[in-house]
Amino acid sequence: MKQLIRAIVGVVAVTVVAGFLPAQAAATPSSGISAVTLAEGDIPAGLLPFVPKGVHVAVREITVAPGGTTGWHYHDGDLVGLIRSGTFTHPGPDCVPTIYRPGEIIREPHGQANTHAGRNLGNTPVVLDVLYLLPLGKPLSEDAPAPGCDKE
To answer: Looking at the record's lineage, which domain of life comes first (predicted)?
Structure first.
């Protein structure tokens, strides 16, 4: 009987502890993406009055092959991009896509609340030039799980 009680207490303890552990979110992988960094550097804190905390600046050329996706992600800083070629489908956290065509500007605000994906649903590569303005020490992007409304 003591062994049964110990087993039950053990199961309950594991269940309680597991409830306090952070849930692991399943990131959505990218596919068909290539990127070339054209320029990058850091602006240290205090160098410019409008950059009080410092910022990492990067300019990248990103190509999304037909059928490719960036996967769901977000950025810790703001991004601005120019679509050079192709048609870029860009759903946000509500899964409502915005369509961008050559010559159009895309803006991606920072933060996990602005989780998004980029997709090439067309037959030609999407090429875009992107300016990243990130807090110092932060990665270019952070993986995120697909929102519940995403059916892909």
So the answer is: Bacteria
Cβ atoms of 115 and 73 closer than 8 Å: yes
Mean pLDDT of all residues belonging to the chain: 84
85: amino acid identity, one letter: S
Would you kindly state where each structural domain of the chain is located, as residue ranges?
Answer: 31-143
d(CA 27, CA 144): 5
Q: Where are the beta strands (DSSP E) in 6-149?
A: 31-43, 55-69, 73-74, 78-85, 88-91, 97-100, 105-108, 126-134, 142-143
Other C-beta atoms within 10 Å of 128: how many?
23
Q: Which CATH number fits domain 31-143: 2.40.30.10, 2.60.120.10, 2.60.40.1120, 1.10.3720.10?
A: 2.60.120.10
- Paired strand residues for 57: 41, 133
Residue 49's pLDDT band, with cuts at 50, 70 and 90, is confident
Q: What percent of the chain has pLDDT over 70?
A: 82
Which DSSP symbol is given to 15? H
